[in-house]
User: Which sequence fits this backbone?
């Protein structure tokens, strides 16, 4: 099947899915005043695939000779991973730094499930690999949009899934029937699920035997009976392009995704009680997804650096030492984040023919990005000046008598009038001092796992043992062989 | 005259002042749907003064035996400064961390003008000190609300006031008449000026002789002919107390303050062409005001720490090592900021009977606060979790069918239901991941002068010379006597 | 008895004490080629007390009307604590930043023992307070030098004292006799004990009931039978004043202090099995001592800043923006550390008539100092240039033919010859890039407790509960009442 | 010619070169008690080349079919650069983290000279490329050891070379003769020059026309008449392997290299007055050399991490949260530094057939390493404990009676006696709290250019313009076209 057009994609979302927004059922997510904005934003992903015919960055040939979206291309080498990174960067850059996330994350989950299923099948005689392969071809050949629901609602964070007072705090097996598996429970902040054709579900953490019912992975169409998505209204407050050049037009849509005795046909069940595999699946998915995250963060950092350089220029301060210092820091931040992504791809290892980005370097990249984001925000705010939060808004600007005042008072250096200056200042406010700015800060820290997780993931036994031996040799002692225990 | 009541204060704002909001003239700032919120917020300052009769924290006796607001008490000692700090902390804490700023900043300016005028009068034979004293008594005895307009619109930041293409980019002397001084120009982000009785104007920077016309300081009533205040609509977007417990009720109002040939009677003119005094006045005011700023920042830091501890508690994680680490960092941030404020007061020096907080320590305090704010935000966001930007909003919560879902899915540890958890999460979002959060970040950096200024202000010749001598003695060399040049 | 002279002090060290250095018994620590350097350095403390007769900074009147060293003055108020800080700063500054530590630390321990003993006597009917008072008067009236041995050898750090394979890893009670208590065990890094008249011993940590034998505190004369001090040779490598202007002349001497069945007369036993008081005594001593530490750190920071400013001056770079930035950072570091010390004194609370510095602020000060030290070192090294580790040494300099080369090649800006430049560079190397520099870095982190301890000590239940209430009120919820658990 | 043996290399150093050490002429650097240590250390480079016959990491085939050291292999691709990095890492790791630096830096300079000469020849019709090629083959075919002298003595840093009071502060052209160029002047901290066969000289900075005499590049044999090397005695103080396991055996030797009317034959002159090329040559060399530096830093970071993990293990603390946190930080530091090196190689561009590592990424790598070094030191010191600076030394340890004490008191966790613990602690002290530790800190900051230079080098016009366009498009404005000015 050829690549779908943006229109075909949008049409496919009108399928009777149960979406709730501000307490009301949404009939059509593509025409809804708020959610429709998101739907058309993510449709860009389909539009771009047709934008440059013959460009193999966006589409390649599937085994059947038909074009397929490059997202579905299974990476076999470092070069493939670098190309996948280029794809995600390109699309996100075109999308003004807002990653569509309707194919990136889904394929991350598919690749992870392939790897874990292969191992599980070999060890436990299960037959998941074939099912996943079939489901992957189903998505690929129909050019489907996919969301991934991983984070459970969780409840008491100091207790395991099976210990929760509220049994639905984690998605779980209710019972098995001839037709399939019945599941139930709540997943929190699932991104862009309301615009997906398929919802892929993976566990959020390692499980013990007592948690076996919670060790489930599967996929269901977005219009499955019993599936409700409560879309968050966060991020749809902005309406003026002058005031909020980004958040009035772009954004990611988060939802609480509720499974209320949803039937999953067996060929779509990819884990069902094999609790030992829950942790590896959660981790393998997250590793692929962190590499994706590092890839889609660079366009945001480019925008921050660009906006900072632009306003410094408008203020006539590009040559000032402390301005150059801040621009250099922002450049280092961008270069280092991107460079570590490159290194993660270059250091990939093959598992069953799939190239997996280097775990330590992917985490180093994600951690470096997340740890430094607030400092970058501070530098951009610092460069932009106080007007970022006190400047006039569109309604002021559109009043002739008032605008005249602003034009006199708020111009920049010679040749820069008040309007471009205010537009850049508003871009900066939208990026770093607004509801959107807050969302981006929280995303930097929490998306793809917390700072703590990323930091500790780099501690790998084998590497620690290797360097201990180097130190022991230098000290002239025998090396001990204790291990870093993983929690 | 006794202390005014909140009602008397509000009544005094209905004086025909020219306030523009979203392009329209506001008839009554106290009843306006948005600005009225601010008016009633700052009125708290008057309400508190009556709340605890006999409490000398809020009111003391004036020389005439009448009670006066303690803000007007001229500090003569470290103890007075510490007491002034306690006052500002108390009021700001009661005001949910939003300093009213209708007496704090005005008295900062009055104290600074007293000191600079005293020196100027002695050196140049001017007679400003008496005028300022009379104006101070006028404000004190009528219990007036005051705003300070300092930052000029500026235009090209690489050029001096007199070199600007737009002559009104800085407020300046137009001409002198028998009745007074005619002034013109634009001041940016003047806080709460629309709720003040008096607008005090001070220069924003040092001036050269060519800039003499820009070396002006004065005070005018808020309803002066030719004075227009364009209030910023930033910060009035929030309306739901559930969604935005703070920004739906509290906030500071910034305005662009425009002087269009305003006549200032001579007894209200405090600087007029004496360009050498412009820099000292700008700096002395800022020093007093940085001490005020450090004082009103601690309630915000208390709220950040409190909210972080509360959500950690709700999640059952108070004992986790990495949570304790973050709470400890937030506590250190609060304690260090406040401690440096204490040290600045203790290190005060007397100038003409007025206690001036230690410059290096005040700047160290303000810099430490400003430099660390984004790190604190990161820690709070980190502790709170991703739900901060993806959780349900009031309209979801108020729909019974949907609320039931949330109650099951979003409860915290045992004993903590979804509602209190969401309310605390919303408090956190409001503080650190919202339009308000962005405003607070920018304020941390830009209010009371930029990070660069604060950092470099601590470099003082005498101190550098002192420590160079210590080092020279330790090295066994003669000390050289070069100076750090001040830019 | 009047204040002792430096000579009387030195004479008192020739008492037959058992000191081992580089494997050999030292007959006289005052004339030993290495240790003698230390002995004469600490004697400065006595010399200074006589240097400015009538100056009450160094000596005050004891109750008996005789002069006593101010170190012994029990602080009753914030003012007393500030004065004690001034004393420690003054002496350390005179001592080129090397605190003598033969009265500061001893009085810290005495004050802590007075407080803990008072409480213990009231609660448990013991009679320690009187003994401590008598011992305090003994030290004060004889103007004695005191060392404090706290840190035990420890062994396996994951086990409690009573669980150690090696019973002497912690100092402990062996048995009680009519004459006194017999003690045994090893204390690590006791500073300047080899130059003390009295060795005070306090526990290093909280104890459980099983550890009761390890809950001991006492004092013994330095020449007690069974007491051996193995002095560390670290820090005595430097001999050229040109190459190492500081470490060739000054330094602290650390020792391993070994108690081999030492008899402690009962009137010198201050804790003996009351295990519940071990933790409070350890902590109270450390709190006093951290305040001392903050006081003696500022002269070191003055020296770092002074040396950095001096070399920047010699290189003609005082006006360069990035140099000013670094000098400003070093100044902020000094001012903030000192300011927090001031605030800790100002926030003191009275316990049984003794002013105890504010715990949170003392720890904030110590933590801020320790956390920032390596950054300051980096800035100083950065300012000084690579010559710090590649420059010529005294033997090169003293060779006429070679010196001529250096004089031509290594001069600074106009007017600064190679010699003063090299001397300042050598001062910097000695401070921040040498054995001494390494010692100072480790001291910053480990002396007076680790960074972790300091950070977590600021977390105080009452304060956390207070700010949680503020946040709960702002969020509109009831506050929960969980506690931060102390480990 | 085949690869030289270590013995052949050492023999070649006995050539009458003029080396001064501690004011005395050194007859034979290979047998000198101090310098001999360095000579035998760097000889390792030759030994390793023979250690694994057939291993193409160390030696490859030259065009003439003879084996040549891989250092001389001109990199044509990213893969070649990664392989060169692997070589430098391997040798440095074998050398206990002390890079030999007798071929790495020389080939860095040769590659840079090839590139700059090629451009210069094309632009100015000079004929340097052929000379450099011939000299390169001379070094390669004879397997020579090379040092590079770049940093001039400098004098007043605010003045250009031609403005110095002391004309020899920068190496310069004295006059030209038929036989060659006569040069004069002083180069500071030239590493391992006393062990080189050839001394390569490149300019240290950009030159103006007035500085044309200072725009010189050339190579001379180490035994050239008029050439004197004053070797620094820094770093030769340590003699006990127990106390200083590294610095008693390994080290880099810095020298002041003095040219006193040295005649350089014309075929060895590579720049002579073409002042415009001085800056490009200085920068191109430094870029190659920063890539080398990043490569030789990772073994040091491995050693730091390994020593930290080892001592944490010995203390039984590998599972403690705050220990894991520090080990994770050290791992991130290592991984990020190395990863950025990888990315710099992957991003290489070809210039005249030579692969040049990506400038921004090389600088990001070097900056990240240098900026974080002191934090890593702090973490290692923190993990190791205070004993690092107070523990016993070899002379104590070798005294039976004393050793018995230490064995009881200083053992680690079960199974770890005092001796291995002390050896690891001594390794740590040697690395991070000693003369060597100070040298390594200063090296991190100053070698290969200062932090300031590295930071600002990443600011590249084209990239800034590119991201400004992205921001302008997002803001809806036309982009301005100002440039970041390079200083």
Assistant:
């Amino acid at each position: 099947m050829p690549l779908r057009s943006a229109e075909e994609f949008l049409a496919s979302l009108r399928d009777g899915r149960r979406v709730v927004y501000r307490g009301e059922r949404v009939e059509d997510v593509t025409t809804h005043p708020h959610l429709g904005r998101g739907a058309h934003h993510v449709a860009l992903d389909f539009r771009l695939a047709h934008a440059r015919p013959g460009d193999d960055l966006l589409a390649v040939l599937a085994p059947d000779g038909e074009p397929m979206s490059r997202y579905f291309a299974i990476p076999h080498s470092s070069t493939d991973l670098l190309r996948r990174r280029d794809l995600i960067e390109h699309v996100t850059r075109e999308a003004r730094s807002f990653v569509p996330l309707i194919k990136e994350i889904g394929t991350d989950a598919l690749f992870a499930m392939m790897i874990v299923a292969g191992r599980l099948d070999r060890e436990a005689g299960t037959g998941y690999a074939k099912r996943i392969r079939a489901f992957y071809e189903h998505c690929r050949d129909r050019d489907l949009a996919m969301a991934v629901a991983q984070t459970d609602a969780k409840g008491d964070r100091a207790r395991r899934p099976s210990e929760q007072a509220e049994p639905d705090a984690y998605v779980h097996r209710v019972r098995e029937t001839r037709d399939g598996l019945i599941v139930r429970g709540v997943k929190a902040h699932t991104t862009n699920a309301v615009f997906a054709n398929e919802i892929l579900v993976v566990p959020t953490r390692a499980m013990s035997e007592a948690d076996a019912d919670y060790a489930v992975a599967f996929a269901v169409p977005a219009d499955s009976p019993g599936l409700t998505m409560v879309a968050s209204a966060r991020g749809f407050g902005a309406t003026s392009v002058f005031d909020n050049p980004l958040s009035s037009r772009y954004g990611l849509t988060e939802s609480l995704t509720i499974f209320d005795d949803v039937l999953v046909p067996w060929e779509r069940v990819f884990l069902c009680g094999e609790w030992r595999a829950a942790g590896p699946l959660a981790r393998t998915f997250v590793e692929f997804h962190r590499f994706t995250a590092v890839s889609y963060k660079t366009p945001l950092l480019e925008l921050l650096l660009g906006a900072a350089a632009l306003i410094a220029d408008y203020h006539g301060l590009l040559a000032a030492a402390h301005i150059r210092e801040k621009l250099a820091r922002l450049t280092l931040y961008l270069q280092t984040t991107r460079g570590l992504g490159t290194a993660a791809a270059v250091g990939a290892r093959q598992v069953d023919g799939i190239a997996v980005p280097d775990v330590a370097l992917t985490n180093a990249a994600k951690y470096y990005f997340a740890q430094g984001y607030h400092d970058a925000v501070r530098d951009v705010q610092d460069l932009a000046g106080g007007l970022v939060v006190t400047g006039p808004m569109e309604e002021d600007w559109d009043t002739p008598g008032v605008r005249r005042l602003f034009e006199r008072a708020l111009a920049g250096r010679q040749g820069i009038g008040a309007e471009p200056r205010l537009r850049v200042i508003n871009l900066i406010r939208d990026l770093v001092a607004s509801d959107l700015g807050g969302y981006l800060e929280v995303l930097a820290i929490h998306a793809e796992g917390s700072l703590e997780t990323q930091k500790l993931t780099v501690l790998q036994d084998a590497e620690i043992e290797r360097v201990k031996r180097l130190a022991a040799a230098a000290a002239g002692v025998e090396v001990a062989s204790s291990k870093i225990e993983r929690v």
The mean pLDDT of chain B is 93. Chain B touches chain C through 74 residues (CB under 8 Å). The longest strand of chain B covers residues 180-191.
